[in-house]
Amino acid sequence: MGIRRGTSPAENYDSHSILCHCLSPMSHASHQRLSAPLIIARVFFVLLCLALAGLMVFHQQVPDLLGLGLVVDNLAPWAGLGIPVLLVIALVVRGRASFIGLLVPVVVWSVLFGSSFIPHAKYAPQASLEVATQNVHESAGLQAARELAASGAQVITLQEIGQGQEEQISQELSQTHPYRYMVSTVGVWSAYPLKNAQPLDLGLGWNRALRVDVSTEHGDVRLYAVHAASARPTGHHERDAMLASLANYVQADDSAKIIAAGDFNATSTDRHFAPVLDALDEAAYSDWGLAMTWPRSPFPVLGIDHMMLRGVASADLKRLPIGDSDHYALQATIDLDNAQ
């Protein structure tokens, strides 16, 4: 092939190379052809994404065999940790379908749990009540009562109070919280008068909860102080019965303002906590993330302590490292003039 006049040998060579490359069996199109293992890897990856999303949406339908349902329910928000792992895999297998598939669990987690990670706006209400709760783990009652009183809590409810600590706590709070009512290991100390006190066994067979009216200058507030039975994969029937009984009590309660506080031994994603959520609203956390309260060390994993409301609103909810318990305390500023 001759060289055209006015065309340099280099230009002629480049044109010849491009033509040969296009006609070659090793063309650009062949480089784009996907191998069977890569196709299988991408399909499997998309299925993984859909499985993670499905687990988050339908975790309460997972059979509770050998406690699996309990574990999956209460760890549901932590399923989001699978998303960064899937992102790494997506970067390996590549492909548009892989990244579209990854969007599914991202969107699902954002819809189900994302809003709970954003701080709830706090404000100073005109009529308020400061309520605090903590499971003091038997030995930390006195220190917890002292610190919660110092934090400004006007009503303090403690669970798992150790033997002999009721009098110690009452003496410590005698000047600031002279009104008290205690049932078994659950107690309430209040700066306001208490009335209509009633022990509740909630189906347990012995009293592990109570109900009392707190008489504030803005009207009475019905308070349920609760310590639900323990929940383990090997058995949680007593806890389930207590939560269902509490929901029934609240649904039948005609009080205008209700607060239920304590250690429920269930997170808000637990299927057996659902009846309580149907009867009451959960106070929104005023900091980033979920209000994980247990265990304190090495880091909290589960939010099993709650402040539940009806007929009132939460102006602020904070988590406090009070005392020497293995639970964080919760303290809420309750807006008595507004309902959620």
Automatic annotation (TrEMBL):
Membrane-spanning residues where?
Answer: 34-55, 75-93, 100-118
Which keywords are on file for this protein? Membrane, Transmembrane, Transmembrane helix
Domain Endonuclease/exonuclease/phosphatase, first and last residues per copy: 133-327
Q: Which InterPro entries match?
A: Endo/exonu/phosph_ase_sf, Endo/exonuclease/phosphatase
Query: Known Gene3D superfamilies for this protein?
Result: Endonuclease/exonuclease/phosphatase (3.60.10.10)
Any Pfam family matching the protein: Exo_endo_phos
- What name has this protein been given in UniProt? Endonuclease/exonuclease/phosphatase domain-containing protein
UniProt lineage? Bacteria, Bacillati, Actinomycetota, Actinomycetes, Micrococcales
